[in-house]
Amino acid sequence: MPQQSAEALTSQQKTTSRRPAGTLYRGREGMWSWVLHRITGVAIFFFLLVHILDTALVRVSPEAYNAVIESYKTPIMGLGEAALVAAIVFHAFNGLRIILIDFWNAKYQKVMFYVVIGLWVVTMLGFLPRHLYNVFNN
């Protein structure tokens, strides 16, 4: 009897300790979508917080506000704007995917994740060249 329970335990450990290759997460595309949605959401939240604070500076000190606005015209901030647009676009497309899953069918979750990535890439390819041209040539 003890031998059978030891074999059963070993068998159970083998089946419960499996992980998908290359990732710690078990959810694959669904989990990565969830992680990216949370990261982009937090990034957008902090941008909005900073935006509200820097806009509020105009009431406190117009000179300080002008100095902050001038610092936004640097290439580093231009790259930050590109990252912000990338986060917003992914968050928006992925939010639509989540709505479709909630009201439609989770069966196509994997396909919809790759559609979101494809739409994000196409949108960013349309945005980035013009934006980076303006950032580095003005």
From TrEMBL:
<dbReference type="InterPro" id="IPR039023">
    <property type="entry name" value="SdhC_prok"/>
</dbReference>
<dbReference type="GO" id="GO:0006099">
    <property type="term" value="P:tricarboxylic acid cycle"/>
</dbReference>
<dbReference type="InterPro" id="IPR014314">
    <property type="entry name" value="Succ_DH_cytb556"/>
</dbReference>
<keyword id="KW-0479">Metal-binding</keyword>
<feature type="compositionally biased region" description="Polar residues">
    <location>
        <begin position="1"/>
        <end position="15"/>
    </location>
</feature>
<dbReference type="InterPro" id="IPR000701">
    <property type="entry name" value="SuccDH_FuR_B_TM-su"/>
</dbReference>
<feature type="transmembrane region" description="Helical">
    <location>
        <begin position="35"/>
        <end position="53"/>
    </location>
</feature>
<feature type="region of interest" description="Disordered">
    <location>
        <begin position="1"/>
        <end position="20"/>
    </location>
</feature>
<dbReference type="Pfam" id="PF01127">
    <property type="entry name" value="Sdh_cyt"/>
</dbReference>
<dbReference type="GO" id="GO:0016020">
    <property type="term" value="C:membrane"/>
</dbReference>
<feature type="transmembrane region" description="Helical">
    <location>
        <begin position="82"/>
        <end position="104"/>
    </location>
</feature>
<protein>
    <submittedName>
        <fullName>Succinate dehydrogenase, cytochrome b556 subunit</fullName>
    </submittedName>
</protein>
<dbReference type="GO" id="GO:0009055">
    <property type="term" value="F:electron transfer activity"/>
</dbReference>
<keyword id="KW-1133">Transmembrane helix</keyword>
<dbReference type="GO" id="GO:0046872">
    <property type="term" value="F:metal ion binding"/>
</dbReference>
<keyword id="KW-0408">Iron</keyword>
<feature type="transmembrane region" description="Helical">
    <location>
        <begin position="111"/>
        <end position="128"/>
    </location>
</feature>
<comment type="similarity">
    <text>Belongs to the cytochrome b560 family.</text>
</comment>
<keyword id="KW-0812">Transmembrane</keyword>
<keyword id="KW-0349">Heme</keyword>
<keyword id="KW-0472">Membrane</keyword>
<dbReference type="InterPro" id="IPR034804">
    <property type="entry name" value="SQR/QFR_C/D"/>
</dbReference>
